[in-house]
């Protein structure tokens, strides 16, 4: 079962004959659930930057292939891939977590095994984590680790990287791991390295800006009453989603009598609930990686 799969279907699928976009398809778990909840007229359009994930998704979704279409693209640009019959859409899903397959295979997204420092979702992308580590100036590295990894040691580890790369190019996860380990307490090494990986992955794939662009682009595709669900896994992502919903709803803090201000917005949103939902204790027990997930949902008014 994909992360918070029951909640995704419950809050997203309001029209069984509608068109839904799974903007972060991964291995296709959510897409399968969505397709199974639709009628014969309903469709799921899946997109992912990683062609390796799309191949896995296609195999997983063979039994519902008549209701699922796969596109290799980022969710922030999926609108350009749609035809007239694909719009407007009834809903979209963004599960912003990284697939366990990507973490476990040799894509350089984690420090558990020694792999090239890659971290690209799109293998054709021009920027890799190795490029950042070996070419960016110290202040830029510090900024990445501080802002994207929320690391208090950002200055120290960026300095250590500069010193190390002056001697030898840093090309693999274990090379970088050996440089960074002394800067974390022994009981926090794994968490610290995960934050480093998160920071580099966000920088390589421009993730935070893509979330902002994607939310707007996909919301514009929704028909009136259409819905979206977003699952985030760290505070940077969740803050963007929370603020986006707040900005386009009365939750923005604007007084209710400022109708003229509200009416200037391209669209209006209605949160489906006020606080982010978390996985159940049973789901966390079955899938520990779900423990940090937060789900938010809204409807286009």
Number of strands: 7
Largest sheet at a glance?
7 strands, mixed
> Terminal Cα separation, in Å?
31 Å
Determine and state the CATH class of the largest domain.
Alpha Beta
CATH architecture of the largest domain: 3-Layer(aba) Sandwich
Query: How would you sum up the global shape?
Result: globular
| Domains, number | 2
Unreliably modeled segments: none
Helix tally equals: 13
Structural class: alpha/beta
Return the string of H and E elements: HEHEHEEHHHHHHHEHHEHE
Give a quick summary of the entry.
This protein is an alpha/beta fold and 301 residues long.
Task: Explain how this protein is built.
The chain has about 300 residues and is α/β, with parallel strands linked by helices. It has 2 domains: about 5-100 and about 210-300, Rossmann fold, CATH 3.40.50; about 105-205, DNA polymerase, domain 1. The protein has 13 helices and 7 strands. It has helices spanning about 5-10, 30-35, 50-60, 100-105, 130-135, 140-145, 155-165, 175-180, 190-205, 205-220, 235-245, 260-265, 280-285; strands at about 20, 45-50, 70, 90-95, 220-230, 270, 295-300. A 7-stranded mixed sheet has the order 3-2-1-4-5-7-6, with helices on both faces. α1 (about 5-10) packs across α2, α6 crosses α7 and α10 packs parallel to α11 (about 235-245). The longest helix has 17 residues, at about 190-205.
């Amino acid at each position: 079962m994909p992360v918070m799969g029951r909640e995704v279907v419950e809050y997203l699928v309001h029209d069984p004959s509608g068109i839904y976009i799974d903007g972060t398809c991964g291995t296709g778990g959510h897409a399968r659930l969505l397709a199974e909840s639709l009628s014969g007229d309903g469709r799921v359009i899946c997109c992912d930057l990683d062609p390796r994930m799309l191949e896995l998704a296609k195999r997983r979704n063979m039994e519902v292939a008549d209701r699922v279409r796969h596109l290799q693209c980022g969710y922030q640009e999926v609108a350009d891939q749609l035809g007239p019959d694909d719009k407007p859409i009834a809903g979209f899903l963004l599960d912003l977590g990284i697939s366990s397959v990507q973490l476990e295979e040799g894509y350089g997204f984690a420090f558990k095994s020694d792999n090239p420092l890659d971290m690209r979702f799109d293998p054709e992308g021009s920027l890799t984590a190795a490029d950042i580590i070996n070419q960016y100036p110290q202040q830029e590295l510090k900024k990445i680790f501080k802002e994207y990894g929320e690391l208090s040691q950002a200055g120290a580890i960026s300095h250590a990287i500069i010193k190390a790369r002056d001697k030898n190019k840093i090309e693999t996860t274990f090379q970088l791991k050996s440089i960074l380990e002394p800067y974390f307490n022994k009981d926090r090494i794994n968490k610290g390295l995960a934050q480093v990986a998160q920071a580099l992955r966000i920088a390589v794939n421009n993730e935070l800006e893509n979330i902002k662009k994607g939310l707007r682009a996909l919301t514009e595709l929704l028909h009136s009453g259409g819905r979206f669900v977003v699952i985030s896994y760290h505070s940077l992502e969740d803050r963007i989603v929370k603020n986006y919903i707040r900005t386009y709803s009365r939750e923005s803090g604007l007084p209710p009598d400022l109708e003229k201000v509200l009416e200037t917005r391209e669209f209006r949103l209605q949160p489906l609930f006020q606080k982010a939902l978390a996985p159940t204790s049973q789901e966390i027990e079955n899938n520990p990686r779900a423990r940090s997930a937060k789900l938010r949902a809204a409807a286009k008014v």
